[in-house]
Amino acid sequence: MGRTAPPGPELNRFSASVRSIVERDDMVSVALDVNGTLLYGEIGREQAMDEYFLPGVQVQVLLRLRSLHPFT
Questions:
Q1: Which residues fall within 8 angstroms of residue 33, CB to CB, at 6 or more apart?
Q2: 16 near 28, Cβ under 8 Å?
Q3: What is the pLDDT of residues 12-52, one digit of tens each?
Q4: Euclidean distance between the first and final Cα of the chain, in Å?
Q5: Beta strands per DSSP E along the chain
Q6: Beta carbons within 8 Å of 45's beta carbon, 6+ residues apart
């Protein structure tokens, strides 16, 4: 997840808008709006600060299927 498209094939890549962020110890939980569907993810706090993750910012997401976990 970042402001620029990740390298590699376009399979499982898409654009999203940051809906909200919740800062935790060394991670940031991010709610993403993908054409009206909400997805939730986490990134390192340092990356979130470097990329200026704020509500409304457009980001590029690479969805690694092995990284999927149910949200509880």
A1: 16, 17, 18, 19
A2: no
A3: 788 899 999 998 888 999 999 999 999 888 888 888 887 77
A4: 21
A5: 13-23, 27-34, 37-44, 58-62
A6: 23, 24, 25, 26, 27, 28
Which residues, including other chains, have CB under 8 Å from residue 1's CB and lie 6 or more apart?
30, 32, 41, 43, 47, 59, 60, 61, 62
In angstroms, the CA 50 to CA 70 distance is 27
Question: Which pairs from 41-48 meet CB under 8 Å and 24+ separation?
Answer: 41/1, 43/1, 47/1, 47/2, 48/21, 48/23
CA–CA gap between residue 39 and residue 11 (Å, rounded)? 17
pTM, rounded to two decimals: 0.74
